[in-house]
Batch of 2 targets.
Target 1
Amino acid sequence: MSTRSPNHESSDARVADALPKRSFAQLFFRTSIFEIIAMRGRRELAATRGLETLPMRVRELVMRVVRKARLWRHERTDVAAELASHFREGLARGESEDTLIRGFGDERVAARLIRRGMRRKRPLAWKLWFYWSRGSVVLLGVLIATYVFLYCRAWLDTPSINRNYSAEWNAAAMAVPEADRAAPLYIQANRAIAATPGLKDGERFMVERDPNERGYSVSKAFLEANPKLLELIRAATAKPKMGLIVSDADPLPDWAVGQFDDAANATRVSQKATENPPLITVLLPHLGPMRQMARFLAQDAAFALHEGDSARMVDNWAAMLRLARHASEDQTLIGQLVGVAVMFMVFDDVVRVMQSHPDLLDSDALRRVAHLLAAASLREQPGDLTLNMSREHDMIEDTLQRVFTDNGRGDGRLAPRGLAAMGEYMVPGWAKDANETFGVTSQNAAVGPAAPAAVVISASRRETSDAYRELLGAFDAERRVPLWDRTARNQLADVSAKYDNGVGRTRYFILGALWPAFGRMVEVERGVGMKRDVAVTCVALAGYRARHGAWPAALDELVPSYLPRVPLDPFDGKPLRYRLKDGKPLLYSIGADLEDNGGVAPTKQIDLEELQRMARAWIVTKKGAAGFDAVYWPTPGFPKPSPSLE
Amino acid sequence: MKAETELLRGAGPIAVLKLLQAREMYGYELVEALERQSGGVLAMGQSTLYPLLYNLEAKGLIEGERREAESGRERKYYRLTPKGRKRLEKDSKQWAALAEAMRNLGIAAGCVPARLVAEGMSCANHRAEVEP
């Protein structure tokens, strides 16, 4: 507040001149909004009246302090006025110029303290803006420093590939004595297939069981053209172990024969295998040809049936079951699926033959078939039809060691370079795109601007491993729950949902890329057991009829001579449903609606996997599967599927 | 003897508040009074006093008013606010307790600066001089 009189105006102008000169632009841009609102500039400027009367050295001292204090315009004039007043008082009391300057103290310290003091007097809005802006700058600095640190770390991080899983895989195969290895004979058989005219390159062989169909004679001509082929396949299946050496060569030359024999593809065969390839790149080229060979055996079984050669038919079934065991020996998901598919062919064939030709096999042959079915296995232990996917676990662990760093205690963080290397396999063409788009190598592109964010967002090695084990544990728990004990709660689905969301898919993207289709595997595993139970029961029924000349009135009569126990209905845990209808057997399960509909078959073919899914849905919603059962004997007659569907 | 900066930082504000309790004063007057009444112990230059005044003003403990004195010179007079009085009362008790503790420990000897004791100043006389 000023009480000065109007006659001081001319003096104000001189004081204004004495203060630091500022252009209009400087005034415009360096005058804060707070100062403009306060409208104090001119008023306070007037308060410096008399500054020009001070000695030059004192006046310059005041000017320097005011300038160094870096204050708003009205603050500058206010402080200048007060300091000037102080010096005038001193001079008026007779103190010397030197004494006053000396007593003033350090001008830099004064400027700093004055600035601090005056800032504290500023409006709250300015203080909020000041601390917010300073805080933002500090935060930005911290973020930039953190980013730079993370970027450097991401650039330097490299995975430690300590284990060679494919070598361990091959070591187990090479431990099998050469005389016991089936793989070399399967390879010979594959070459024999390629050398046999009549089947185009890569064409699937279709099993035709109806002698009236053209395909039957075509198939017969093909197999008769190369009589050694079936011998080779049977000789291969007779070996105790597969003994397959795997690699990432594309394709494995031994198996390329018959699949790629044109000039363009021949060059691919020359690609060499790497010493320690990622397990997910290891090829399984034997599975396609082996499935083809299983079809040849099934076709020959059909020929044997119509020729009345029951021993040859059973031999083919036995060979197919051994081939299924060989195919599943690699412990991969796809290997297990091929093994299961071949077993399905046998089980379906057995049921079909028992119904169409119940008198073809004598008691001894039937006993042999029963034993073959009982011993059918996907593992070392005879009869064990649980899926063995150990190699899938190795595949996860191998990927983790290639994508994450290793701290020596089972943990580590995402290494972008490792991810880039794996990206070549997980996202084909990624490296080429990176090179064309950014002109950099794929590994450098991986350590791009987003690399630190990827490292921060990604789950750690241990978290990823733990998540995988949690999912695996849920799968194991789910596969042990009988279908009839299922509730709305699905442990595997619950755990999957935990990771199958936006955050989970982002943090655990490695698992997302590699996670096996375990959900379907529960139904596949249960389905193969169900099919075997049905096949064994059908053989037992035929065995009973062969000895007693009539069908049994109840399945209990089959125990223990033909069956160790009556198989359970997979849908409710009670014995399979059976009764005589019109003097013939009627064998069925209650089906997906969990109600006995008296053996009414569905109007279209529904496989056991689908029936299980329908049952699960029925338990929850009571919708979708009502009114029919799963009928095994007699096999419901459905329209023949088109070859493409088969 | 002049107080160390750290000690002055704690003692300066209450000393200024105490001086302004009696009457309003302007900057130069405060500098003089501080030096004289503290026997030079709390003497502070402009570089310290004015920032201190601005701080006290920012905290609302004192308020300044610019006006023309009888001499014709323009001055900014500072006076204690009600908030400043409360703060002075509270801080005085703390300083009294502190001084008592120092005396009990044998660090502080009496109630009058040593220089004034030599001149024969008693506690009562000194209090009468510094208090309104």
Target 2
Amino acid sequence: MFACIHSNHGDLFALASSFSPSVERTSPGTVVFSIAGLGRLIGTPHQIAAEIGRCGASLGMQARGIQANLAMANNPDTAVLIATNKPGVTIVPPGKEADFLGHLPIEVLNTSPQLLETFERWGIRTLAALAELPEIGLAERFGEAGVYLRRLALGRTQRALHIATPEIKFEKRVELDHPLELLEPLLFVLSSILNELLSAMRRLSLAANRIHLGLELENKSRHERILEFAAPIQDASMLLKILHLDLEAHPAAAAITAVKIELNPVAPQSVQHGLFLPSQPEPQKLQLVLTRIAGLVGEHNVGSPAPLDTHRPDAFVMLPFRPPAPAATLATAEIRRRTSLQIALRMFRPALQANVRVKQERPAEVAATGVRGTVLTASGPWRTAGEWWTETRWMRDAWDIDLSDGGVYRIYLQLDLRRWFVEGVYD
Amino acid sequence: MTEAYVELHARSAFSFLEGASIPEAFISQCADLKVPAIALLDRDNLSGAVRLHQAAKKAGIRALVGAEITAKEGFRYPLLVETREGYQNLSRLLSKIKLREANGNQHQAAATLDDLAEHSRGLICLTGGEEGPLAFSQPIMEKIIGVFGEKNVYVELQRHHLREEERRNQAAMNLAARFHLPVIATNGVCHATPEERELMDVLTCVRHKTTIDKAGRLLAKNSESHLKPAQEMIALFADFPAAIAETRELAARLSYTLADLGYQFPPYPVPQGETMDSLLRKLTEAGARGRYGNYEGPVRKQIDRELALIEKLKLPGYFLIVWDIVKYCRDHNILVQGRGSAANSAVCYSLGITAVDPIGMDLLFERFLSENRGEWPDIDLDLPSGDQRERAIQYVYERYGRLGAAMTANVISYRGRSAARDVGKALGFESEMLARLSSLAPRWGYQDPKDSAQRQFHESGIDLQQPLVQKFLSLYCAIQDLPRHLGQHSGGMVICQGRLDAVVPLQPATMPGRVVVQWDKEDCADMGIIKVDLLGLGMMAVLEDSIQLIRDHSHEEVDLAHLPQNDPDVYAILQKADTVGLFQVESRAQMACLPRMKPENFYDIVVEVAIIRPGPIVGEMYHPYLRRRQGREAPESLHPSLEPVLKRTLGVPLFQEQLLRMAMISAGFSGSEAEELRRAFGFKRSEKRMQDIEGRLRAGMTNNGITGEVQDRIVKSIASFALYGFPESHAASFALIAYASAYLKCHYLAAFTAAMLNNQPMGFYSPQTLVKDAQRHGLHFKPVDVAQSQWLCSIEHHEGKQWVRLGFNYIKGFREGTARAIVAERERTAFTGIRDLVRRVPGLHKEALNRLAEIGALNSLEAPDRREALWQSELALRPVSDLLEPETPSQEPSPLAPMDAIERLHADFRNSGLTIGRHPMSFQRGRMNRLGVIPAADIRLVRDGVLVRIAGCVICRQRPGTAKGFLFLTLEDETGISNAIVRPDLFDAQRTTLVSAPYLIVEGMLQNQDGVVSVKAERVRPLDTSFAPAASHDFR
């Protein structure tokens, strides 16, 4: 016998697993499992059904008002068809499958729309009508698929369950005996968890490319940190160092009562080093360096700048840093070679607010922090305006000026604010 | 105007998604900015040139001609026309590169340097901006100079306040110095004002199929590509004033404008010793003798008058060419009839171009042709839609050469839904939001004044406070009427003496073998290019097919020109509005009018055709005419002097010709002046022109002693009629066809119905309604049958009567080739069964076979019922090798239950959209009786003012612009058709039900007056039924 539970909510897999090690996740919200042998442990199918109900209640399903259907039948398909289409508990006595399935509409069959359309044309609207069609006639027309559907309608299929393998998770939560306020004892706890999780990962030839640290605090709030790594890491001490640095930069707001670490498993990075290339630092150490830098300059200011596809001047985004592949390194070198003769503009970030005296619609004098002088020549205005459909619309007139202080600067007037800025200086 | 600067490089919305302003907007802006001339250089076309020229002419601005020509390498050559030879070269160049590519590949049309070299004379080449040749490659300069000559190449500088542009300008100036070329300033304009930059960005997104958020650097860098005044351009080029001065020099050099088009209508080839004048006179006289016998008196006088004017205006060639097309049609059994104002001409009637006797009907010749109008007369020919019309079109191509004739274009512009969809997509709205926005775009005939965009948005749950929605709204309004792409006009053809491609660029049409010009019919008319409209009329095809079916099955020859006059059966069905399927008199409004009008003679049909038009309705002529017709009001003309003009229409002006005559009599206008008046008040209204002519009209009437209220009433009726009125000649031409259709329906119902079914979609009603109407008139139908049916519906003889056999064309998705293969195979040997059918007709795929089985078309192949056929079909379709195929078909009986009547009905609708079985409502009759629903056939027996309930399948929903928000519903049941009227407030309250429910129950007060029966709806609810709906004809 097989039992099928169908519900849109609740951990059905856990419920089924408490009765059988052979559980199939048929679809989201549907599990089917063998109840063979439960008769000697629990009793009749009705008693088994009652026990499943009780167990579901103990898992909190009843308390949460979760509605579930349960069907028991001699084969998994019948159990699934009835559980997914008939409310409540249904126990199908052996040999009576066709009676229970017969009234179900033909659409319950998980088959192709073309086949359903053919049945609709034929006037076959229920499983009982399908069951009445001659098996040979169906075989001639639809081959094995037709025969299988008819057997489904009769409740006469037999198959093994597709046993679900539980997903391996690398996570651990530790509830602390007493709240921790200092970082050092916390690192001790973290070290223990990381050693355990990364040992498990190494056994499976996996590495972590992301760590999710969740700290439950005494004040009932949570402190969450998610760190992604440029190269996957297997070394627990390195990961601990990274967490150490990160927690120094982002300390928890209150004493810690529980710790949870979740590692995302990926295949470890394998790099074939070139024989004649200079040796490079281990990519795993990169993350350590990046974390140190992030601690100094802020995590949003670390990474690889990438220009945005917009006319907005100086628009870029910081992407997580990734070590370039050797080929890309060569391309970058080539680009550098080609662009080495171009004039460079050193940007002031943020731009320096400036006082500009305008004469005949051209800048005549400029004064800003560290920049002051009379404009000798000015070229412009270079006008850009865009993103008119958003609140971040911009309009600006930029000028390239040769200033009496000997520098060549780029200044601009932000037209909506009517304010001047020095954007950078040309080398 | 200041002569300081001329804009020589502007791109309009006719560059299709590469410009955001229409040509008229450029001219208006030129006028505001005092720019004396502008050159329009649209990408690979001259489609905007005429509109620019016309607008410029009115504004006193010079419109210079040019185009950007796409090069094979991807950049564009900006070319300006210096002389007429240059214009012809440009037009030929465009035609050459366009015609080289198929219609679907027009975006790949591009020119090589050899193409340019062949057509370079009279053209001046600029170097463009970021899309010009210099931005692509500087070494190409030498080649350009080689093609155009150094005096005809100008180095172009553009300044939009962009750094990289300045770098290009520096390089361009170096090149200019090196090659000693003049330098010229332009602003590379692609929108008239800075504000239109946003629209330009939206169009860019549409062109690149992206959204504004993702478009990035595809969008404009700033808003500087707009038309700028001289002082701004002078300031921009303060360091290089010669570039500005050169614009004046070059503009002065560009002597060509479209005023010098050089178009000539082709002469008609005449036999030795004849002239076109003499040939036309000879043909007209011969024709007149056929029409009028030995004509003398007023007929001869009129014909002589017309011929004299035609000769004076040098138009005999035009008449001969149209006569030649008509002759070709007659010689090849293609039904043809002239319509429109040509029917006012006795010459056209004599030549057989039109079928209405203008003298007998006292029609006004000046409406057709007048001496001072300065434009070509308009002759439209109605032809059977489909292949026959195509034959006539191909004849014109053959006669005048592929480069001597072409169809006119149809400019597809942004309107309602297309505007909402493209703007919404560009702004990145989700598909659900797009669907909601599109649904808000107007599609009703009637526009409720309360239906402001704000209200519609609010009701649809769209928050107008959102900035992006506000942007959408403003852009949606701004994009209206902007050209989107060029299509092909339904029937307008232009013909030219010599090569048409030297007059206007040609390009391939979607339909193979057709060529279109880049101008629409208005442009052609404005440029004085003569046009012949070869229009496809579904009813002409029906008449032609009917005549053939009658010839084949009744062995009678029907001559439409000699149908019995005043056939009582025809007037009987017209009087009781039994007009489903008839030409022009089948609409709900016509049906409501006919029982009041009670047509008794041909002229009544002419009036009937003309009276259900916006003109008489807006001009409030409809009800007075009907009251007078019914004797409830005395006929009285607006003024005694107008009595002769208005007597025929009981003192109420109904036709355009009447307004011309009214002006001639009351204000002493000449025929030409009267026509000028009609045009001034017509669709292209100009306030100034209207005021001017109204002043003259009033002055003339005052001189003739017509003053005060009478004068006002006459002016009002003229004003409303000029816009919407129907020419009497046109109505008469249509009335002839209406009479013919009624005659055939009365006397040859089977042939007429088969022909109607074979020419769908056309007319007002769905095939289902046509079938049910024919059945109520006693016609029997046979279903589709693979052993009997043809591709088209055909006629069979049973029990001494003609039955209509449905054709394979009534099976959804069925291919004509498959149907013809079935017929060919069955004529070879009859099919022995379904497997035999499948084996011998390999093109019969599964879906088609199942449809055949499901509608009973296989029942004659040893399948006693539809389900048996379906059971067998499924087996027949299984691929079986010859080796394994059974010698005898399986004898296994079908286990499937036969379809019941309702299932058959469903199958019929699902697979063919109609049923020849019971009407869906007949299955509901018991329930309807219990609900007190009155069948349609009985409703006219109920007296006026009784509360009734009607129900049926909705076959027509209308909310015409003239009905002030009322909705007209037509319901059909198994006994006939009933009508309901829904008040605006009820419509607002039950909009969803009324718009979408396929079956309705309507309860309300019955109005039964003068034989016109309708229910004034008080309550409406959907009829709960699972039946498939018949197609409803909505909102026209």
